[in-house]
Amino acid sequence: MSDRATVDFLAAVPLLEGRAEADLMELARALRRRQVAAGEILWHQGDEARELVFIVEGGVSASLHVPGDREVEIGRMGPGETVGEIALLDGGVHTMSARATAPATILALSRAEFGGLLARQDAAAFRLRRRLAALLTERHRNQLRRLAASLGDDGAGPAPADPTRPPAELEFCGPPDSRYVRRMANFHDFDQLALWGFLTSGRYARCPPGRTLLAEGAPSTACYLTINGAVEKVLVRGERRIRVGLAGPGKAFGYDSLIDGRPSPVTAVTRERSLLLVLPRAHFEQLFNGENAVSRVFLEVLQRDQVATLRQTLRPHARLAASL
Amino acid sequence: MCRILAYLGEPLPIRSLLFDTDNCLVRQSYSPKMMNTFLNLAGFGMKAWDPASLRPDDPFSYRATTLPSFDRNLRSLSSKLAPTCVVAHVRGVTYSDEAIVAETNLHPFHFAGARVVMAHNGHLRQFARIRYALVEHVRPELAQRIEGTTDSEWIYALILSQLDDPYGLPETRELADATAEALRILRKVRIAHGIDTSSPANLCVSTGRAVVATRFSFDYGWYPPDDEMLETDLPFVSLWYAIGGAYAENDGGWQMTAADPPRSVIIASEPLTTDHSSWLEVPEYSMLTAELTPAGLEFETRDVDV
User: What is the pLDDT of residues A133-169, one digit of tens each?
Assistant: First the structure.
């Protein structure tokens, strides 16, 4: 595959959409091309992540090893798609095993090169972060669909809103103590001025426990960041219910719908009384599409949350049989 | 903060839980993987039930304030014992001269003659303010038996006090209800005293025939801004389990073999292996109950909304 052919291929990869030709040429030189036989393992779940893979030809299956010594296929990827981005983004181990389903041609991008693309401050780096956000949203929705199917979802979707759960009544209030916020792990390693710019770009609100902030199947009107307390993210089908995440301090929710314009994939209910940073749609879009230091902090916080959420959703959980 | 472990099932050498795996309980005392900025160096305790021993309803007991990784007695004993139920604990305390490292503060707590033991991973913030308000909820004969200075021993006395007979063998359901009721009482007393900051209460309660475990926190997500435990408590305190036939080494790695119905379960603050793929995370705000029956292990997970 010549550099020219590689550049033409990369130009059509959704994750790299909009990158300048010179950028793609530089990237093409950093990629390592490999032929993979059908059945060959690219990596095992739990392996240290060394590379991101673009599939040129053939296909790759991603599977999860679950209790009971079983393998569950989570997805199949084909030409133009990427595999292995989650572990490269958070520096953790691979969440799933990857295996070629047919003879494949792949282009591998090393951890260092991928980090270099993200670390740049130019428009292309911001675009890449937004494309990654869209890709992670799609991955998250796919996994939630699998979980809903395990609840016996026949495609009819969620039950109507639970009338016993009152809708959220937000009481707007002042910002939290900055000494506390600075100690939250999700906000480490940022320029303090830019971080504070992000943390003051919305409004703070208190909410009592047991209130529905977001309903599955309805459009989201805001992105929320939990400062204190906790918000449950759940899927409900009839009498059955799975908690798919708990947004405690520093964790966000409500953004999937704002990223891809589709209805919310989960219902969000306050489990504890909570203090939330509320970013209405207009504020979210300004931060998401911006290309300054504050947007950079926001996109990084969002990405950390998406990766952690996806890891959480992929992890097998005990099912709750009943309430006590 | 601490690390807890409970095992219920087929006879299993304790050594495999405490020493042999790459994230075994003893290793979690000095190198925990799921705790930020904190070690568990304030002692080790264990209760173990072996049906083949003398008086099998009385657990074997071991506790020492020395570091378990250097404890040759513990290593030697753990190679010889293969019980059907174990509750073990490595204790962590704040690095402060206010913390008291003493044998009387080591878990699992077990009042003489009682059939129930309990270990706790967590801490009740501002416990000193509610300690004596709990007296009215604890049977007087049990309150007199509290020897140590921990919040955990009071939780144990509260749970025992909710049983019809604190010295009898409760049904698993009664033990689960007593544990939930103890949490309800703590919630009420905290509210009455205006305490509303995060206080984890991951509990392992056992009779040797059944285990009740909680992954729970009061007022999760709320902290005093200058709190020294903030970074440790920001994530919900972890709890995991592995369930199946038998915990065994296979191809150099330890895992629970598949079995339906299951015969054994391990419940632990952290998976005992760095490979988590055979472990399940216990949902936040939930309770596990496990009981050995002639037909196998009965196991259930429930939401705890107290």
Answer: 999 999 999 999 988 887 776 666 676 666 566 667 8
Q: What DSSP character marks residue B54?
A: S
Where exactly are the structural domains of chain B? 2-121+201-217+225-303
pTM of the model as a whole: 0.92
The radius of gyration of chain A from alpha carbons, rounded to an integer in Å, stands at: 21
Residues of B in contact with A68 (CB under 8 A): 244, 258
| Among chain B residues, CA nearest to A319 | B301
Distance, in Å, from the CA atom of B3 to the CA atom of B25, rounded to the nearest integer, reads: 7
Q: How distant is the alpha carbon of residue A282 from its chain centre? A: 21
Nearest residue on chain B to A188, alpha-carbon basis: B231
Interface residues of chain A, partner chain B, Cβ below 8 Å: 45-46, 64-70, 177, 179-180, 183-185, 226, 228-230, 243, 246, 248-250, 271-274, 315-324
Superfamily designation of domain A3-119: Jelly Rolls (2.60.120.10)
Q: How far apart are CA B288 and CA B300, in angstroms?
A: 6
Mutate to test the interface with B, among A72, A165, A186, A272 (most CBs of B within 10 A): A272
Nearest to B213 by CA among B299, B150, B84, B149: B299
Fold of A139-314: Jelly Rolls (2.60.120)
ipTM > 0.90 for the complex: yes
Q: Distance (Å) from the C-alpha of residue A48 to the closest C-alpha of chain B?
A: 12
